[in-house]
Design goal:
heterodimer; A: mainly alpha; 5 helices; 49% helix; globular; disordered N terminus; B: alpha/beta; FAD/NAD(P)-binding domain; five-stranded parallel β-sheet; 11 helices; 26% strand
Chain lengths: 100, 424
Amino acid sequence: MRAIALAFNYVCMTAASYAGGDPEYGQYLSSECVTCHQSTGSGLQIPAINGMHEAGFIAVMKLYRSRQLENQTMQTVARRLSDEDIAALAAYFSALEPPD
Amino acid sequence: MTIVDRRNFTTGLLGLGAMSAGLSLPAYAQGAKPRVVVIGGGAGGATAARYIAKDSKGAIDVTLIEPTKKYYTCFFSNLYLGGLHDYDYIGHTYNALAARHGVNVVHDWAVGVDGAAKTVELGSGAKIGYDRLVVSPGIDLKYESVNGYSIDAQDTMPHAWKSGTQVALLKSQVENMREGGTFIMVPPPNPFRCPPGPYERVSMIAHILSKKNPTAKIIVLDPKEKFSKQALFTEGWQKHYPDMVEWIPASVSGGVKNINMDTMEIETDIETFKADAASVVPAQKSGAICDRAGLTDGDWCPIVPATMQSRADENVHVLGDASVASAMPKSGFSANSQAKVAAMAIRGALTGSKVFEPRFGNTCWSLIDANDGVKVGANYKAGADKIEVVDKFISKTGEDDALRTATYKESEAWYSAISADMFS
């Protein structure tokens, strides 16, 4: 009964709908990032990523995903992200104000 | 319908749910503002309150019930013990949740939940109604799990497992030990809040003693045979504190048989140890409100992984240490992650906002000595019955100093970020 009720929470969408990097999906995914990345984090070991250049964001995340950049946390985060996930995150963060 | 795509989301939930179930419409579906009440202002509760209020942009009325006006985090309390941060650094207020996000912050105890009436009773006797309830009370201690230990004994041998004044008391006792004295740590049995915590505590106390009282000893009387990050801690203790730390598993000591608070003696099968200072962390269970609300099965609260809804009441979500989160450890990071999943599900249920596939993550940093940080982490998915590991990692033994320093600095940045994610 509860499982049926829960199932109503989900309606599926085709993957093509978000091909350009959907900021709303990116905002959802970003909630994982902001546990560690502050919006005012210049100079910290974990840098601010708000306002980051979109293409640069995508490139860095793919380097973490392929383990060409070293950081176990970031590699584990990135390996879970599809190209589409990364594009959505890049669209979201690049639209935010960069840190002062 | 099954979840077949990671970008699944809700549309028209209220209509679908109400019609299909043949239920009468709740008040919020008839125009009233939906109400969420959150019990507990820690990593789970504060995050849930903040995200529901922030992301609903005022469409949901959020009330946070938390007895303390200043919340001292358990995470990083060991760094306060080790002298790396002062007490104020780990204390946070709820002012921004109220001022910036419009959360109604009520400083009181939640003493009861009426699931049928959907009300929370406060210590003051007042009742607050809800459409969805978030229960995130953290842990309570089973003092009786250690013979001779009790709530009255906590000032003599502080557990210091809920942060705040207990940690300040423990720090004072450690720093005032006699020269060459013995500190004894009694970690809890599984499952418990912050699996690496007792061993980071040993490390940070060793860090202090190695400077102020270098002939002091630390004995760990563990009820377990192994512990989180064991190889990393063991290596670090040998490197930084040679001959200071002795870890004794239950298979060797037979476990703690009794503690005499008057003489500070801790009795085991092999020896009766005399402590000059000690920290005894008993077995744990979910916060008392969980039992009163009928949410527990044994000591903890079973949940539906995709939404963190209680298995006992679908209008209630249980977060953090109190929940049975399966593969996820009981940590502040886990609670924060679960809160975001629950906040999304609650907004979806109450306002029809999009609900994406839930994702969970956790990283636990530990400090072995100043600038010697290590970490363990994973990300998780919601299985049908359990939260399941997708991918995981752990620091390696033998890492160079530069990497360990970077990992420590990373933990400092994380603390600032998660504090802001909870309280700003």
